């Protein structure tokens, strides 16, 4: 009995400084996931997605207690995401970049999955009597329609950074690496000098920074190896080996995801890119599509991208009807008969 009273006292004292009654339980959930060894990126996703939920709860149900939470509350929140929420609402730096209301079903599913994980934990740990997670369904999503850049747009983006300045040259190298290797942006930003084999023209993506937790070796072109070598040498001159990271700020600290995202967006504006989202992930789609169009096979592409199966690779390759016609003209069994 004393343990129950003590636990209630902790709950009460915690609720005084928190924004919503559910925050205490999310803190417990987060500590459990940290103990399980989840990657920092995954933990950050849980945090950011909970903040969106927290913001909605604080407006709609500011005093809602965990034992009062129902499936209807969760469905209301899902409906809010689909019809009312803006993409970066509440984000510290990206909030003003998108004002359109209603998230895509794919984005809603990403946030719903992390919410379901939280709800499942609460039920498994005995905090929730009902298994709400099993009653929350994901949205039906049409085939992936994220396109890539056209070749002309690739050249325009590469020409956008001012290479006479350190930050401009660094951005140029980052763009080239993303286009040439298909690395995820966080994989690129966490590269160190030791991950580069400039003579062998390969990049090692360590297990600790790979999204799937498995290391892989990614090839790069001679040109990319040369400009990476030049950037590493410039970093040594500028910062005297204070950091082994490849992509640095003017003060020698590592370039962050939000900072890189903003730089890429600005270069897209300067290049006049329209009709396609200028984001780090679009570079990955572009690499995959152009790799296949240039004759690369899907099995080597799978290894380069670091995916477990070809079904994920297929989502990255966006071939237009014209691409299909060209491929058919070259590969049809009737060609040459």
UniProtKB/TrEMBL annotation:
<feature type="domain" description="Tyr recombinase">
    <location>
        <begin position="144"/>
        <end position="329"/>
    </location>
</feature>
<dbReference type="InterPro" id="IPR011010">
    <property type="entry name" value="DNA_brk_join_enz"/>
</dbReference>
<dbReference type="InterPro" id="IPR010998">
    <property type="entry name" value="Integrase_recombinase_N"/>
</dbReference>
<dbReference type="InterPro" id="IPR044068">
    <property type="entry name" value="CB"/>
</dbReference>
<keyword id="KW-0233">DNA recombination</keyword>
<dbReference type="GO" id="GO:0003677">
    <property type="term" value="F:DNA binding"/>
</dbReference>
<comment type="similarity">
    <text>Belongs to the 'phage' integrase family.</text>
</comment>
<dbReference type="GO" id="GO:0006310">
    <property type="term" value="P:DNA recombination"/>
</dbReference>
<feature type="domain" description="Core-binding (CB)">
    <location>
        <begin position="17"/>
        <end position="123"/>
    </location>
</feature>
<dbReference type="InterPro" id="IPR013762">
    <property type="entry name" value="Integrase-like_cat_sf"/>
</dbReference>
<dbReference type="GO" id="GO:0015074">
    <property type="term" value="P:DNA integration"/>
</dbReference>
<dbReference type="Pfam" id="PF00589">
    <property type="entry name" value="Phage_integrase"/>
</dbReference>
<dbReference type="InterPro" id="IPR002104">
    <property type="entry name" value="Integrase_catalytic"/>
</dbReference>
<protein>
    <submittedName>
        <fullName>Integrase</fullName>
    </submittedName>
</protein>
<dbReference type="InterPro" id="IPR050090">
    <property type="entry name" value="Tyrosine_recombinase_XerCD"/>
</dbReference>
<keyword id="KW-0238">DNA-binding</keyword>
């Amino acid at each position: 009995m004393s343990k129950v009273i003590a636990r209630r006292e902790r709950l009460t004292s915690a609720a005084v400084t928190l924004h919503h009654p559910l925050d205490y339980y999310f803190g417990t959930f987060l500590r459990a996931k940290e103990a399980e060894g989840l990657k920092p990126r995954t933990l950050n996703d849980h945090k950011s997605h909970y903040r969106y939920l927290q913001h909605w709860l604080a407006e709609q149900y500011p005093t809602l207690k965990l034992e009062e939470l129902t499936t209807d509350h969760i469905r209301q929140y899902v409906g809010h995401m689909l019809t009312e929420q803006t993409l970066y609402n509440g984000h510290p730096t990206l909030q003003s970049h998108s004002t359109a209301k209603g998230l895509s079903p794919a984005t809603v599913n990403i946030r719903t999955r992390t919410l379901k994980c939280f709800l499942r934990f609460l039920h498994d740990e005995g905090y929730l009597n009902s298994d709400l997670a099993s009653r929350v369904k994901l949205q039906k999503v049409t085939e992936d329609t994220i396109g890539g850049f056209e070749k002309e747009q690739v050249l325009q983006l590469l020409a956008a950074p001012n290479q006479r300045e350190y930050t401009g040259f660094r951005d140029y190298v980052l763009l080239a690496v993303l286009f040439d290797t298909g690395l995820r942006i966080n994989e690129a930003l966490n590269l160190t000098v030791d991950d580069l084999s400039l003579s062998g023209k390969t990049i090692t993506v360590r297990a600790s920074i790979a999204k799937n937790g498995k290391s892989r070796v990614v090839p790069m072109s001679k040109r990319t190896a040369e400009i990476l070598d030049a950037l590493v040498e410039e970093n040594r001159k500028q910062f005297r080996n204070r950091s082994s990271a490849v992509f640095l700020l003017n003060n020698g600290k590592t370039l962050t995801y939000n900072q890189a995202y903003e730089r890429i967006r600005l270069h897209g504006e300067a290049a006049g890119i329209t009709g396609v989202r200028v984001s780090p992930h679009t570079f990955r789609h572009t690499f995959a599509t152009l790799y296949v169009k240039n004759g690369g096979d899907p099995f080597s592409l799978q290894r380069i991208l670091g995916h477990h199966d070809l079904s994920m690779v297929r989502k990255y390759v966006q071939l237009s009807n014209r691409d299909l016609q060209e491929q058919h003209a070259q590969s049809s069994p009737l060609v040459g008969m």
